[in-house]
Automatic annotation (TrEMBL), chain A:
It comes from Arthrobotrys oligospora (strain ATCC 24927 / CBS 115.81 / DSM 1491) (Nematode-trapping fungus). It is found in: Endoplasmic reticulum membrane. The chain crosses the membrane at residues 462-486. Signal peptide: none annotated. This is Protein PBN1. Pathway: Glycolipid biosynthesis; glycosylphosphatidylinositol-anchor biosynthesis. InterPro entries: Pbn1 (IPR042322), PIG-X/PBN1 (IPR013233). Keywords: Endoplasmic reticulum, Glycoprotein, GPI-anchor biosynthesis, Membrane, Transmembrane, Transmembrane helix. Belongs to the PIGX family. One of its GO terms (cellular component) is endoplasmic reticulum membrane. It is a single-pass membrane protein; Single-pass type III membrane protein.
From TrEMBL, chain B:
The keyword Lyase does not apply. This is GPI mannosyltransferase 1. Its EC number is 2.4.1.-. GO terms for molecular function: alpha-1,4-mannosyltransferase activity; GPI mannosyltransferase activity.
Amino acid sequence: MKRRITFLVSPQENEASEDALRLAEDKLEIKGLKAIREDRFTFTFDELPQFVKDVVRQTQELHLRFDNGRNYDEKWKGPFASRLPLGLHILAMPLRESKMTNLCSFILKYADIPCGSIETSFISRGRLKQLYVPNVNVLPNILKPLGNKICGPSKKACKDKVLALSTATSLDLKYDAASQTLDISAIWATSDGNSKDGSWDVQVKPDTSADKVEVGVLTSGGKSPEEEISLRGKLAMVGQDDELKPALVSFPSRHHARQSIYMADFNRPTGLHPKLEVTLALGGNSPAAGCTLNAYFTIPQPFFVDPYQLEDDKLMKSYGINKIKVVEGETDLEAPEWAMSKWGALVLAELDVAEYLSTWEKKRSPMEFTLPLHLRYMPTHPEKHSETATLPWPMVFWACPSEQWNKMSTNPFDRRMLGYDEYFPEETYFYHLTPKLINSTLSRSSLEVPILNSVDSQLIEWGTMGVIVIGFFWVFGTILSSFFGASGKKVEEHQKKE
Amino acid sequence: MAQISVTSLLVLSSLLRLVFLLYGLYQDVTSVFKYTDIDYLVFTDAARYVANFSSPYLRATYRYTPLLSWLLFPTTFNPQYLWFSFGKLLFAAGDILAGYLIIQVLQIYGFTATRAMKYASLWLLNPMVATISTRGSSEGLLGVIVIALLWSVEKRRVVLSGAILGFAVHFKIYPFIYAPSILLWMQPPNQPDLVSKVKGFITKDCLIFSITALTSFMGLNVAMYAIYGHPFVVHTFLHHLTRLDHRHNFSPYNTLLYLKSSPFTPDPLYPAVMLSDLTVERLAFVPQLLISSILLPLFAKKDLPSTMFAQTFAFVTFNKVVTSQYFMWYLVLLPFYLGRSRFMGKPVIGMVALVAWVLTQGLWLGQAYQLEFEGENTFWPGLWGAAAAFFLVNCWILGVVVGDIARTRRVESLISEKGVISM
């Protein structure tokens, strides 16, 4: 196992002072350091526990990603700019024709996520399968049993280490069959520890004397060419080096942050056809020539989109969307929520930024766009009159054509296969906008879906039957009396009258 | 009205539709609220699939015969701004033809031309009918098929009648309810006893009618199955038998269907109370078919078109799914019944019926609007109550209709006695 820890200090913060870092022979002490932290663990296939081997053995490529839907700030984020809609995202590419049954039973067992089979629970994007769970509390559920399994019953320190990952802002697990390695990367936007201002007081120490931990404390290296990120700071191999070494690196990066915020909410009243309205403080220009502004939605049940409605270019234009590039997943237009086995659908929308930019000089107003949605019927309940339905906010980003794409994988913090980047040419780099949470603690919006209250189920049943019976016998009776009644006489009268 | 000619009535109703059609094009261009019916987009998408030699069933929610997508093949031609509306023109033309046939058939029944036109105007100049067809709903085509069926039956064109019926059932299932009525109507009059009544069924005409109907129905099915295979059967027929229509609609069964199809959570206060095993919703077809296709056809001899009107009205009223487009199914037959109805004879009853029908429907629409667009929970008792009230009003109207038809003496005997029916 290899371990690498990176502290990324914002240039707005005071630079790490000399006493913030103290390297001793076998440990690095860090005190009062305000930084984004990334912990990265790399395992070779042979180092993996058997049950993990069983899972990854069936996959060509596997990505489990979690985002906590919080900790958005406008600080400099360096290479850690990309985020995902909150919750758990799984992207899996089977090895040859594998059904990836072990992955399915793994998430069922450890994450308690319903998975009958990959076929019925994941949405299919060609060979790539995708599952999304809009739950921000899913990590402890997964990590606790996982820690027990990996560490054995008694090793508390080990279990604590595994469980510590559950406080991460985002967590990535990546395996690919080509390199036969499993990478885990956890990012904390701030310290979750005892210090109030979110600074780090930690001691980095290798587990055994044979182990080494690579630590870097880095900050912005100043202006760098577009597409590139430059970092400078100090590096040390704890357990080996005697002193921190100065470092200055720069590399092309797929993901960059953009100083623009956005927020979203449903227009009210929501009804059964809610619309998510997204407001972007975009400013008046795009980051580079040829960029498109995009929004990536993961839409869980009971929401759904009508792909035919989204095809209506004129309607979409009126919603601030240039075109819907991708709709994939469950788009049945009629079925109720309880008849659905898949989690939902994803939508990639290209926003109508040209229209917005052309009027920006005059209006100077924020950009807005709207995604029209629909709701499935939800199960009846004896105590409730509605169910809460929650939609994660989309990720909004500029996608720009790149000239350096072949070098991007040299980025030590590179992140790809996020769910949307596969829909762009490989030579693309991204500028990410930052969600702004105002009335909520998480980047999502909720609404109430009216449901039939079943406390009167008996009355509904008997009432319906009663009404049908009354109506039926009224008609039935008229028919019978017409046959057997004194209809002849009436006919006479009828004729006379006319 | 008195001096207006048939031609001018048809021109007038064509103009009405043309205005609606053009207005619709304008609204589609200028507003995000589309005039064009969602189903029209389904049909035309399906037509595009057909134009590319693939199956119309590749289009989600295409639940119709492939013939419809074939008919709309020209909607795929270029330039689109001209050809896209071809289907609407076709449906509107179907409306007009249906109206023309209504005038013709009414005259067979002894209506004067003027009087026939007056009643046909219920269809021809009805803004609801014109709207539905120019929005691109195919229900209008069904109107012309049904009236053509009536016309050919009255003209004793037995083979043609059977062929049309088979086609109609292939097109939209429900016209099968007319089969028993037509068979009974074809019976020789005044059969003294049951045995001869049964024998009456085995006349040459009845046999030919049945065989041609079956042949055209099955012939079309086999042909479509040969081309499109299993999806044809699934979407055109099986879907309608197995569909789980839990989304709100006018049917009185609607709330119950939602309740029964949803997973059930027992009430913690009364955990023993479970949903009953009563399967009212599964047996819904019993009262529906008993009335519409077994009992009501017994009146066919007295007045075939009014009986067909009553049958359709009953079929729609007792259906598990009711949407306003289904009202078109019986509206096209209304001109044949209304003239002899108590609703006209006693205007008070007529007004009460109309007001009650409109009011309960409006009540339902109000509840549905609150649910659908304002997110108010009106499932129970609001929406249910409105649907139940609308159902009961419909049943009451149906009772009056049945009474009226029963009071009519046999049409033929009237003709033979007086030469003309007194209306």
